[in-house]
Amino acid sequence: MSYILHIETSEPICSVALSHNSILLHEINSDKENTHAAHLTVLIQQLLELCQIKIKQLNAVAVSAGPGSYTGLRIGVSTAKGICHALNIPLISINTLQAMANGIIKSSENNLYCPMIDARRIEVYCALFDANLITILKEDARVIDKNIFEDALNSKTILFFGSGAEKCKSIILHNSAIFLNDYLHTAKNMVTIAHSNFIKNQFVDLAYFEPNYLKNFYTRQTV
């Protein structure tokens, strides 16, 4: 029996979710961009009240660990650490790009999936996953050019999605490249990954854990 709080602050939308034994109970998303510091704890309180769960009933907190907005990640991780420390419960780190892929993958499809987060100028944070969520190409900050992922595109259809995908449409023109419009990454995409980590006791050290910024300092937006 496990109640897990999920916190997603890697991009402008602030999102929290609560799950019980891998089942999503509820999710709340803030439609006010770049206000994580002011709204995150309020959203968490609203979520727990809506689900009629007291904070002391939580068994773990899962947090989106990056890549993404430097400030947003810092706020999310700091909040998650504070809750875990106060309740003496474990912290689960979730790779943001993997969670994004988890939100759209259909195992019956023989495609590859490329979540993209805008990293300013002509760069994106991205990775490549197969339909089983296995990493084909490790996450990195990559400069976009017409030949990016060419080898993979010559053998597979790749679905590109996320905040960084829009600016790639006019550059990646391969016939096997499909761009998904209006993709919104929220905390519910973390649920199954977090539950798997929880039952395997795959937790991070509260004292030393830091978000994965991929760059030394990154301020794509003020959150």
End-to-end gap: 34 Å
CATH class call of the largest domain:
Alpha Beta
- For the report, how would you describe the main beta sheet? 5 strands, mixed
Give the CA-based shape: globular
Which whole number gives the mean pLDDT? Answer: 91
Features:
28% strand, alpha/beta, 5-stranded mixed sheet, 10 strands, 2 domains, 223 residues, Nucleotidyltransferase, domain 5, 5 helices, single chain
How would you describe the overall organization of this protein?
The chain has 223 residues and is of the alpha/beta class. It has two domains: 3-96 and 185-199, ATPase, nucleotide binding domain (Nucleotidyltransferase, domain 5, 2-Layer Sandwich), CATH 3.30.420.40; 104-179, 2-Layer Sandwich (Nucleotidyltransferase, domain 5), CATH 3.30.420. 24% of the residues lie in helices and 28% in strands. The strands form two sheets. The chain has a five-stranded mixed beta sheet with strand order 3-2-1-4-5, with helices on both faces. It has a five-stranded mixed beta sheet with strand order 8-7-6-9-10. A hairpin with a 2-residue loop joins strand 2 (14-20) and strand 3. Helix 1 (36-50) packs across helix 2. The longest helix has 18 residues, at 70-87. The relative contact order is 0.21.
